[in-house]
Amino acid sequence: MTEPVIKAVNVNKSFGRLRAVDQVSFSLPPDTCCAFLGPNGAGKTTLMKMIYGRAWRDRTKDSSLTVFGRDPQKDELTIKNLTGVISQEDNLDEDLNVIQNLLLYARFYAMPAEKAKQRTEELLKFLELSDKRYSLIRELSGGMKRRLVIARALLNHPLLLILDEPTTGLDPQVRHLIWDKLRELKQSGTAMLLTTHYMEEAFQLSDSVIIMHEGKNIMQGTPAGLIKEQVEKYVLEIPFNRAGASNELTSFPPDTRSEQGGSMLRLYSRNLDTLKAVSHRLNGTGCFLRQTNLEDVFLKATGRMLNERQ
Predict the structure, then answer these.
(1) Spatial contact of 21 and 47, defined as CB atoms under 8 Å apart
(2) Given this model, what pLDDT does residue 152 score?
(3) Average model confidence (pLDDT) across the chain
């Protein structure tokens, strides 16, 4: 496949007077992952639902949305047969055990029983759940449930995987295991659309990032490219309550940029020695000097105050 898996042009979605998605355009090439970042209420989940046909976009003459070259509002079932969806909720059937959950779901794709059993065993092995095949859902840890939801989404060998906050609330070990499995899937040809509040997750998994705010696409690029283009290379974090710091906050060098948020002042610069000198002047107590990351880009784009739409 050489055409984009998803192509969105000026996509809109309104709920009454609220414009949840506002003129969003992007494309998703095959074998790549695009991460959507944004505060709660930015429109990410609404956009995902329009892509797999659970919600309909507003029809305007200059907008279009295609998935595998098809309109989700007209060919919802065809698109779903080629797509796996991992929602925020672990909506598993707690009256069934692990393997029964998968076999039951396989019926939605009209899989022959033997093929469904073979595919189920493959996925249990892939997600490292083989020893839990007969466990009831309530006996599983949060990480195991999340891996089972991913296994369920992969039953139909999807060409597109939609991941809505796939690792929220999981411990680092499970999160990294899931990242490894998702990388394997991408290498095998699965395109991915990801929403997440973990900036490190977006950096690790995505080939491109789109930052949404109040329904709009306000920033787009590769993770490394956005960091390089949008923020300085280094940041010094200075707590306001550090003894003696308050007397120094008005005398920083001109080649710095400051941001205040909560009880912390962050001083950005492309010159590492400049920030080292400031830290030294403050005796370094309570200060933290680091390289900037995707979270700095996100907060610069969306602000540090809570979005009123949340």
Answers:
(1) yes
(2) 96
(3) 91
Size (the chain), residues: 310
Q: What is the CATH number of the domain that holds 280?
A: 3.30.70
Sign of the CA dihedral with 78 first, then 83, 89, and 92 last: positive
The pLDDT value given to residue 310 = 41
Mean pLDDT of 57-79: 93
Distance CA 42, CA 12 (A): 13
Residues 61 and 88 in one domain: yes
pLDDT of residue 160: 97
Q: Are residues 172 and 254 in the same domain?
A: no
d(CA 276, CA 36): 34
Pair 90, 202 in one domain: yes
Alpha-carbon dihedral angle through residues 107, 108, 110, 116, given to the nearest 10 degrees: -40
- Separation of alpha carbons 247 and 104, rounded Å: 66
Are 92 and 137 a contacting pair, CB within 8 Å?
A: yes
Residues 212 and 259 reside in one and the same domain: no
> pTM here?
0.89
- Asked if 41 and 197 count as a contact pair (C-beta separation under 8 A), the reply is no
Are 78 and 207 members of one domain?
Answer: yes
Dihedral sign of CA atoms 184, 187, 193, 197 in order:
positive
Q: How far is 307 from 310, CA to CA, in rounded Å?
A: 6
